[in-house]
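$ fold --in a.seq
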Amino acid sequence: MPANSKTERNANFHPTIDFSHTAFNQLMQKRIRKVLIISSNYDFFMLEEDGRIDEQIFNEYVSLNLRYPPAFVKAASAAEAFRVMEEEDINLVIEMLNLGEDDAFSLAKRIRKQYEEVPIVVLTHFNREVSLRLQAEDLSAIDYVFCWLGNADLLLAIIKLIEDKMNAPYDIEQVGVQCIILVEDSIRYTSTYLPELYK
């Protein structure tokens, strides 16, 4: 056998993944149905102005042939947030960093203590002051921190990321769905890359 024949054979080998026996209806069983956004009225107004959240996410779900886009509920204070969580089945909490009298990190800990299964994401406008503050804070109660750059696609990407995280143990380990691992320690860059990965 020529010395290079094995190399040539490997170079021409293209493995295929057989999904013929995969029950696709069993994938992504856990979904985000209702999102609580905790923010000041001003920040929520800016989110709406930048992205028209409900409309854009609805249109994105329709374009991807996905049913049941998540609904958004707003709270302007910690007290209102807990009232909403008692009354509604909230699957994801998104906090804006600046909550006036309420501290976003303390609030995250209180929510985590009472609703430990609900993912918590902090969304912030980014500058050096915010970066230094994040380095000094205890982020143990928070799943992710993202930088708001005026792109509503980020909110959709956050929802998809959380859904992937919830479904990964079964979809990847049991079914064999492939995944992409993003390694990046910059919140700003991650907030830029994530919407592109999910498009």
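$ fold --in b.seq
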Amino acid sequence: MVLDNVKIIGTSHIAPQSLKEVKRAIIETKPHILALELDRGRLNALMSNKRGRRVPISEIGLKGYIFYLLGSYLQRKIGDKIGIMPGAEMRLAIKMAKKHRIKVALIDRDIRVTLRRLSQAIGWREKLNFIVDLIRGVLFGRQELERLGLSTIDLTKVPEEDIIERLIKRVRERYPGAYLALIEERNQIMANRIIDLALRDPDKRILVIVGAGHKQGIEEAIERATSTELAVAG
């Protein structure tokens, strides 16, 4: 990554370790701008401690709606298990930004657009893969985790990079449409917005806080974009 005024950290939305890392990064970096993996709707829901307005199926499609419900349920269950509310690290970042008068930039795509894209992108093969993986998980949960090399994951910590890469590769292979809508497109959008922030205020330090699964993809997208610009300028 060639943007000297930008630092990116990857977090887990349900890991207590992320709270410490966010706090340390803000204190050490002393950013002028905090760029967060949020959109306006998710920010409002996060800071009001409410689940947010239930998005109508007509706005996002049935598949996106089902994913939204499942994802929210799983995050809450895991959060309850380890004693942390999903998104706590983002809430901490916003509170620290207010305390230290740091500008906050929301860089993620509107969740309704993402879920609508998900509904459009998922094909019949991915739906079949989901059913197969769900049955495997229910019947052979531990064996499946061991087979995928994920049995040692500690949910209280941000996963190691090799585990993240393994998970993303699995999603890309089994669910290419979901990968496109949930990861690749958002990585590009967030990278573009980070570049805009950095070029608009080149003298200001920018700290970017995103989910660990997005960090590498965003950095690669920034590097591609800035390398292309340098090549054209040269």
